[in-house]
Structures are given as structure tokens and as C-alpha cells.
Design a protein that fits this description.
By secondary structure, this protein is an alpha+beta fold. The chain has two domains: 3-104, Roll (Endonuclease I-creI), CATH 3.10.28.10; 119-203, Endonuclease I-creI. The chain has helices spanning 3-12, 17-28, 53-63, 95-104, 119-129, 149-163, 182-192, and strands at residues 32-35, 42-49, 72-77, 83-90, 130-134, 137-142, 168-172, 175-180. Strand 1 and strand 2 (42-49) form a beta hairpin. Helix 2 packs parallel to helix 5.
């Protein structure tokens, strides 16, 4: 697609309410908004292990009209010197994505104080960063270690405000992790289960 055609495409794009909800979940999780120009436009980057290719495919299906190149795999090195095969995609840059970046970034990713969670946003956040405590325990984790302690406390408050889900905090080497105790799990699952894709339901208790 040539430059003029890409410019026309960007003029025709707008975020749907569903994409906005998904984007909130992505930004609480593994999604990244990359600043693209001096005007503050940004593009969304999605990347996961190739083992989660079905999840990447689902995300791509939600953003395909914003993407010029379908998901592609690449070898990614890490600080330990090992490599992993990842798969991902990036959207075109757009001012609406730039507005989200202004809310969710202050040099690093942050939790905006005006955040509102929806069932879809919560499900995407959980698919990105949630996990089961163990096969023998129904408790669930949300890996919030990338956020400051006061931001994790805000996330706790949002979960209780929007869904009446109470959580505990657990100190990890790299930050605070949110724990959904077994008494709260049924309520949590009833909210997110309709939106969790089949390939990610292994994260939910049986």
C-alpha cells in the first residue's frame, strides 16, 4: 500500500467501543503503544510467544482493519542471552491511539485514575496477565508487578467498584501481584468467561 493510500486509510479509521474496551485490557496487560511522531500519534504493538498464536490470531481479528501486515514470527533475544520465537503485529499509527498513550504512559506504562473496567476489558487483561495459582487451588493471579504499589491499590479499588471483586496483594521480587482468593473466583469467572477465548480457558479453574 502506498503512502497516499495509507493516509486515506488512517482518515477512515476510528476506534469502536469494543476496540476501546479491548485496548484498556491490553494496556493493563502485555500491549504496548509506541509513539510515532511529534504530533503524539501512536501505534499498537502486540507480541506473544508462538505458543499463543491462537490468542494473537484473535487479537489480529479484532484489529485487522488497522494492520497492514498480518502477524509474523521472529526470534527474540533476552537479557539472559537465550532466544524465543514470538509472533505479533503492529497497527498503523493514529491520533486516537495517541490519546490512549497520553492516558496510559508517563515515560512508563501507568494506571490512569479515570480508568473504567468492563467485562471485556477485564477478560483481555486476564488473558494477557492472569494465571491460576495451582491445579489444586482455585485462586487466581493478576500479574501487576510492572505497576507502582499505589497503582496496584487503585486497580484493586477499580475491581471492587466495578465488579464487587475483592483481591489481596502479594509481594514478589519484582513488585506487587494481585491475588483473587477462592471465595471471589466464582464471581470473577462469571464476569470474564463469556469473553475468554477457548484457547485461553486453561487459565480459568475447572
Amino acid at each position: 500500500m502506498n503512502t497516499r493510500a495509507i493516509a486515506r486509510l488512517k482518515q477512515e479509521l476510528f476506534l469502536t467501543s469494543r476496540q476501546r474496551e479491548i485496548l484498556v485490557g491490553l494496556l493493563l496487560g502485555d500491549g504496548h503503544l509506541e509513539k510515532q511522531n511529534a504530533q503524539g500519534w501512536a501505534r499498537l504493538k502486540v507480541e506473544h510467544s508462538v505458543r499463543q498464536i491462537e490468542y494473537v490470531t484473535w487479537k489480529y481479528s479484532e484489529w485487522s482493519s488497522w494492520v497492514l501486515t498480518p502477524p509474523a514470527s521472529r526470534l527474540k533475544g533476552n537479557r539472559l542471552g537465550t532466544q524465543s520465537m514470538n509472533v505479533g503485529f503492529a497497527t498503523v499509527s493514529h491520533p486516537e491511539l495517541g490519546e490512549f498513550r497520553n492516558r496510559f504512559y508517563e515515560g512508563r506504562k501507568v494506571v490512569p485514575p479515570d480508568l473504567t473496567l468492563t467485562p471485556l476489558a477485564l477478560a483481555v487483561w486476564f488473558m494477557d496477565d492472569g494465571s491460576r495459582k495451582s491445579r489444586s487451588c482455585r485462586g487466581l493471579y493478576l500479574n501487576t508487578q510492572a505497576f507502582r504499589p499505589d497503582e496496584v491499590t487503585m486497580l484493586q479499588w477499580f475491581l471492587e467498584r466495578d465488579f464487587s471483586i475483592r483481591t489481596n496483594l502479594r509481594a514478589q521480587v519484582d513488585g506487587l501481584q494481585m491475588y483473587i482468593p477462592s471465595a471471589e473466583v466464582d464471581g470473577f469467572v462469571s464476569i470474564v468467561d463469556p469473553y475468554v477465548i477457548q484457547e485461553m480457558k486453561y487459565k480459568l479453574p475447572c
